[in-house]
């Protein structure tokens, strides 16, 4: 920047070599001119002009709308004052307006959403999209992503269903090796129990447990945990009912076959359901629910005619505390001592009422049941067989099974619990929840401290501890009762993990 004084000192010329400000002349009236005034003028101009240069350069380099006046420049760079209009705010409001419009309109037929963000940027650059087209592209990408995530979730649930329904190779190996041992080793065919212990099978001074299973490894854990947790293990008698997987007559019903073994994804309208509801439907379609072993519990009074009381156990439980006090519980004339499952906040397990199991759009269900009635848990039940024999529980159970078959299996989610909820109505005595903790096969967020305090923990749900899909941090409470030094378990590569 250069200053030129005229010979008469009546004008000052300020020039800039950068081209932004060429010449600025200041004429000074002769009569009022003073060196003090000149000096102050030069100082002010020398201070302001660099800022003018910088601001002008910024506007030019940023490629914003051309400003031909300092007024324009001030609106863009100057301080935000209450009476000024914020261009960026107006731009955002305009874009919101476009988004709202696009959200309610149909995506144009010829518009193909890009597969990635980089593709979107490339297409914007090449095609010069306007804001409306850009909004449609974003919406199309989001909807496409949502569909893919949803389909992936349903596929994951279906794969988990197949994994939960299968027999792990190690357990299958164990069954085969034990079968071979039974056929080749005379000692393995020795009568159990020995003749001198037979009277104990009907002695009511002992604590009788009944376990119905076809999983030898799971059964071993139940028995081992019960014996190790008991204060008087010599008083325990286990009745193990086992058989091969049997589908028998119920498998002849086409509706049941399709219900359990059909492809539940292909042809299904997944947009009408949620992953959680779909998972619950898959669980109800587990093939174990048509195993006769699961329905045998309704015949306990006939199977054990000389017993007064017994504890029935599922094979996916672990006993952590002495259960002998259960035989001292006063069931107040009721048949079934069970933990209620409607008193907790856990939506998967402990907040279940009849409405969670039954189809209340069916007239028979609506007529006979209350949707808000509290459900209870199978898996660890103390049964008073004397009181049971005075009821028509078994007949009621069979009657409702037939009604459901005639209704094309539409009255409830299939399984043994829904018909039992009906058959045992009025015959259930609630017991303290600490006796039976459920849900270890449903969710990984189970409270570890509560697990340690529970008398019986139940891995109900798909994620059984002997499966790869079992929750790793919950498996330890089950696996510690597996004898990994046993030759059969070691040879079948059932490894501790």
TrEMBL record:
It is a single-pass type II membrane protein. It is found in: Golgi apparatus membrane. It comes from the Eukaryota. One of its GO terms (biological process) is pectin biosynthetic process. GO terms for molecular function: polygalacturonate 4-alpha-galacturonosyltransferase activity. The chain crosses the membrane at residues 37-61. Pathway: Glycan metabolism; pectin biosynthesis. Keywords: Cell wall biogenesis/degradation, Glycoprotein, Glycosyltransferase, Golgi apparatus, Membrane, Signal-anchor, Transferase, Transmembrane, Transmembrane helix. InterPro entries: GAUT, Glyco_trans_8, Nucleotide-diphossugar_trans. SUPFAM superfamilies: Nucleotide-diphospho-sugar transferases (SSF53448). Its EC number is 2.4.1.-. It is an enzyme of class 2 (transferase). One of its GO terms (cellular component) is Golgi membrane. Belongs to the glycosyltransferase 8 family. This is Hexosyltransferase. It comes from Tripterygium wilfordii. The lineage of its organism: Eukaryota, Viridiplantae, Streptophyta, Embryophyta, Tracheophyta.
